[in-house]
Design goal:
Layout: H1 18-31, E1 33-36, H2 42-55, E2 60-66, E3 87-94, H3 104-110, H4 112-122, E4 137-142, E5 148-151, E6 158-164, E7 168-169, E8 172-175, H5 188-196, E9 202-204, E10 211-214, E11 220-223, E12 226-227, E13 232-237, H6 249-256
Length: 263
């Protein structure tokens, strides 16, 4: 499947329409998140789900402890300080080289119309795939009890596609502008309140087929623990604003349980 018109819901989303692009950009700029429900046609999402189910046995599952800032411990702060406070993340992942060449995911990811749409909405000049063979398209699995702990992203934007909802929970929650990283303001009091549960995140409702653009560098976010027997499946479409960028071998081993060197 290579024609984007057979994959994307063109009745609602004309990626080449300048007014539609402008509305999307305004929403993302104002709210820090853009949700395009039913972006992928239902029959195509069903195909992607079947691919995900067939390949789940290939996924690398891991559980990791980390701080909300995704940084090593600061020795000059106590363990319970927001900078060091540890949360848990647990998930499975299959990598780009495990996505079929004829998968609709690859057709969307490689589409120049899609990339030009993203560039306009995100305010980027160009978008490039990762230079390593693992990181461009990832399919994440979250089974019962698995979650993503509160964290800030290192990248300025994230692009995801929901494939399957769990029976219960597995909800994406965020607190917009919880810090100002460009000014070096980590906003420890607010982050502590979020980590302790006294400040609640805003839940983001979405259904399978929804495309989500999210600015998570300064917005603290998490996915609550999944409940039930249905695995949450979410695709991450990862791009760079510069060509030739690859995840380090250490990062690959951490996230994927192997490196491209071993492929």
């Amino acid at each position: 499947m290579s024609d984007l018109k057979e994959i994307v819901n063109n009745e609602d989303y004309n990626l080449n329409d300048s007014s539609f692009r402008a509305r999307c950009k305004n929403t993302l700029d104002q709210q820090g998140v853009l949700v395009l429900e039913n972006f992928i046609q239902a029959s195509v999402i069903q195909q992607i789900k079947q691919e995900g189910e067939a390949n789940q046995h290939l996924a690398y599952f891991c559980q990791q402890s980390h701080s909300a800032y995704l940084t090593p411990p600061y020795n000059n702060f106590p363990a319970q300080h927001p900078q060091n406070y540890q949360v848990m993340s647990s998930k499975g992942c299959i990598t780009d080289d495990q996505i079929a060449q004829d998968s609709p995911l690859r057709s969307v990811y490689d589409s120049q119309d899609f990339r030009q749409f993203l560039c306009h909405v995100l305010g980027e000049q160009s978008l490039y795939e990762y230079a390593d063979p693992l990181s461009s398209i990832n399919l994440h699995y979250a089974r019962a009890g698995e979650e993503l702990g509160w964290h800030f992203d290192n990248s300025s934007f994230a692009i995801t596609l929901l494939v399957q909802k769990p029976e219960a929970d597995g909800v994406f929650e965020y607190v917009k502008d919880a810090r100002n990283s460009s000014q070096g303001d980590m906003n420890y009091p607010l982050v502590e309140s979020i980590l302790q549960g006294s400040v609640k995140g805003t839940p983001l409702s979405m259904e399978p087929g929804a495309l989500v653009l999210f600015r998570g560098r300064d917005s603290l976010h998490r996915v609550t623990p999944v409940k039930g027997d249905t695995t949450r499946m979410l695709v991450v479409l990862a791009y760079n604003s510069q060509p030739g960028i690859a995840l380090s071998e250490f990062a690959q081993e951490t996230f994927y349980g192997r490196s491209a060197k071993a492929c």
